[in-house]
Amino acid sequence: MASKSDIITTADGNLSRPKEDSGALVKELGSPESLKVSTCDSSFKNEQEERPLQGLKLASHEVLEKAQLTGRLKCSKCSGSRMFYCYTCFSLVGVTPQEIPTIKLPVKIDIIKHPNETDGKSTAVHAKLIAPDDVTIYTYPCIPEYEGEKHNVVLVFPGPGSVTMEEMSKQLLETSQKRTVCSLKEPCPKRVKVDESTDTQSAEDQQSTCPLQRVVFIDSTWNQTNKIITDERLQALLQVELKTRKTCFWRHQKGSPDTYLATIEAIYYFLKDYHVQCLSQQYQGEYDNLLFFYSYLHQLINKAKHSAGKL
């Protein structure tokens, strides 16, 4: 589990699951203690609150529906009993890679997982399965070396010193430009000669493009994050907070703000905002499939809770 953000539901689909199994299914996937579902059905706003994942451009969930009917299977790597995927080995179970959507991300994602975080409760594995080439999961105290990279690496985490996405882009550009100025003051004998027009265009591109290359997320329950967030290896990184997003995670922790997102929510919303605010491109669902598993489980758990009379 563990970052912060919000979610979305998927297209309608009849999930064939015996009613008597609904309680077991909720327990298996993790029953939410504080999932808020609106009881009003008259306005569009309330409908959106009740079905927060509507409108996503997702690959078909048919493959997950079929796998659900098959039930839990053994992971080929660790032999653990799993459904859909193994959260320990980051591998698919009961489905093939060709049946699951994969996407390419505009930046690399590093996820720092707390050693005491329960693997089965984490949504970080969703990102690894959907964007395997761009997502890396580390278990604390293992943290990549970010020394000298503060100009193109940020940490997504709320706090008194955190900035918004717009502020992030501005600060990274300023830092990058300062580094460029400093480097130009020193002679570079191996510098390739370019014509003036090309050099001018390159300078303009540098000024208008966000230099962000890597984003760090912490995967942990909120009461365990202090040990990681205070690690000296992360102190130099610019801290970014997604202040306008709200979670719909079924394990949202009591007492924490609804702006504290699940890890996959935080990754999804960060990339969506980055696409619009930093890359200046219209968002057309490019990263929606990051919520492929998340939206399906959200729908599945809500249906099970309804069947059990808990919603």
What can you tell me about this protein's structure?
There is one protein chain. By secondary structure, this protein is of the alpha/beta class. The protein has helices spanning 22-29, 44-50, 62-70, 124-130, 165-184, 196-208, 226-229, 263-278, 292-307, and strands at residues 73-74, 81-82, 84-86, 91-93, 108-113, 135-139, 153-156, 214-219, 238-240. Strands 6-5-8-7-9 form a five-stranded parallel sheet, with helices on one face. The chain is globular, with a radius of gyration of 21 Å. Mean pLDDT is 77; it is low at 1-49 and 188-207.
Provide key terms for this protein.
single chain, 311 residues, alpha/beta, five-stranded parallel sheet, two-stranded antiparallel ribbon, disordered N terminus
Could you give a quick summary of the protein structure above?
The protein has about 300 residues and is an alpha/beta fold. The chain is built from nine helices and nine strands.
Question: How do the helices and strands line up, and which of them pair or pack?
Answer:
Layout: H1 22-29, H2 44-50, H3 62-70, E1 73-74, E2 81-82, E3 84-86, E4 91-93, E5 108-113, H4 124-130, E6 135-139, E7 153-156, H5 165-184, H6 196-208, E8 214-219, H7 226-229, E9 238-240, H8 263-278, H9 292-307
Parallel strand pairs: 5-6, 5-8, 7-8, 7-9
Antiparallel strand pairs: 1-2, 3-4
Helix pairs in contact: 1-9
